[in-house]
TrEMBL record:
Keywords: ATP-binding, Nucleotide-binding. It comes from the Bacteria. Residues 7-236 form the ABC transporter domain. SUPFAM superfamilies: P-loop containing nucleoside triphosphate hydrolases. One of its GO terms (molecular function) is ATP hydrolysis activity. PROSITE patterns: ABC_TRANSPORTER_2. This is ABC transporter ATP-binding protein. It comes from Chitinophaga silvatica.
Amino acid sequence: MQTDKVISVSNLTKKFGDFTAVDNISFDCVKGEIFGFLGANGAGKTTAMRMLCGLSLPTSGEASVAGFDVYKESELIKKKIGYMSQKFSLYEDLTVWENIRFYAGIYGLSDSNIREKSRQLLTELHLEGQENALVRSLPLGWKQKLAFSVAIVHNPAIVFLDEPTGGVDPITRREFWGLIYEASARDITVFVTTHYMDEAEYCNRVSIMVDGKIEALDTPANLKQHYNADSMDEVFLHLARTATRSQD
């Protein structure tokens, strides 16, 4: 793994009226890192990711993504990142080929690059002969792999994955993480939110959010050692209980 910072966050905060969704978080991510952004539903993970993707302005704090400021250069950030949501971000009523061409065009690839990338992806995903199939007809695992491949078709500096394995079976989840490792090996930083604590084991480092705050940040091994835990589930439960007691 490289040591070049591609995400830098300092005291980032997002408020909606009197409600603080993201509360003064700070962290860095480096090139090629698989960074797990963990927490229960409603912990503030998606809100934080939207700020880093240039989709929502912070209330306060500082952050840069791929060298660009989230306040002033959000459009430049969008050109340097990929994004995949839990719903896979694909158009169900378009064919496999049409989805690849559409997203490659959105990300600014030339016509010749789009043709080359389309053939490459169809081969890598074993979808030859399925290019004219509607995406809605594909098995869930294929949709997931296609959505991820489309999200990095332009070889971005960072890919943001928002609950990418929600609703899929354990075997498909493991296969999907194989794609993540391949992207990391190409020096793409993978920023992944999940509420599956076992997936933390696949990350280089993880942060754990509870009620908008980062309560822990380290490697999975170090966190388990620090909290004398056998699994990341135990680490999370410990942090959640501690946060609850502090509010009482």
